[in-house]
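Case 352 in the screening queue. Each case pairs one protein sequence with one candidate compound; here the compound is 3,4-dihydroxyphenylalanine. For every case the pipeline is the same: read the inputs, emit a complex structure as tokens, and attach any notable structural observations.

Predict complex for case 352.
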Amino acid sequence: MLDKLNEIEKSALESLAAITDQAALDAWRVSMLGRSSELMQVFAGLGKLSKEEKPVVGTEANRVKVALESALAERAEAIKNAALAKSLEEEKLDVTLPGRSVNIGRLHPSTQQLRHVLDILAEMGFQVYTSREVETDEYNFQLLNFPPDHPARDMQDTMYIEAGDRGDNPILLRTQTSPGQIRAMREFAETNPNDPPPIRIASPGMCFRHEQITARSEIQFNQVEGLAVGKNITFADLKGTIADFVRRMFGEGARLRFRASYFPFTEPSAEVDVECFVCGGKGCQVCKNSGWLEILGCGMVHPVVLQNGGYDPKIYSGFAWGMGPERQLMLRNKINDIRYFWGNDVRFLEQF
Ligand code: DAH
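Case 352 output:
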């Protein structure tokens, strides 16, 4: 029996020495010291031993039990310390590493460009006039000389707002910043109806069109509208102003050309192209081999529009233009997909 106890002790200590994790240790405890372990069987069998054998075997069994228990405690401690050392190693903190920099935000590229445009126009004497994004059909179209069934309305698919039956004057999201022309003229004219003051404004803001969203068209985009009204304003003033703007915007050497065009609210109307700054006018993919890039529409304010704004077209004249800051940025930076602007991809936004 004593030999058996020695055998139990020896093999238990051997298998304990190989254990390196808590789960194996728990299993070892159950099999070596648990109710049905060999050692506990020895204790259970003590009663059947002779009077002489009993104290000897009992004492030895107790010694083995105490030895295994203390070996177990020692092993448990060693496993715990090893785990701690490992986690310290893994979670080692290198205090010499540079800190993580805080990502400070920035203005959206459209806003940056919008401000750049307005800065230039402010230097040229144009004051910012903000108008509304939610408009009526009257201001967005009719007062700008688009009658209800005018074919030019097809150029701008419109998003309407449900606001009951308003006949031929529904509420809509402005498709252009041009209704700001009427609002500005009426506001200025009101200050002195008999002799309305001259106007020089730049009116920026978001416009909306019910378009299929593609690389080239979005349902929202910014425009900057320019308007100058006064006495003796001629097409020469329009040309000079636009040429000055283009040089400030695209550089001293930028060449530009006026191309006859049509808008219902201007007469005559023109579109302005700048020489392609990608290829210098030689023709490339960006300018579709024409050497020119269209940047804005403009014209002399139509007499009907002046009248609608409260300015007598026999006394006053004016010019206006409209352009898109996103388009300018796309041309400048060779951005080939307008969807980047509202896609909220920081990899795009961070470049500006
Ligand atoms: N509103 C026009 C558009 O969205 C742009 C425009 C053209 C504005 C000529 C003007 C202008 O003021 O004179 O297509």
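Case 352 observations:
- DSSP finds eleven helices and ten strands in the chain.
- The chain has two domains: 2-91, 109-349.
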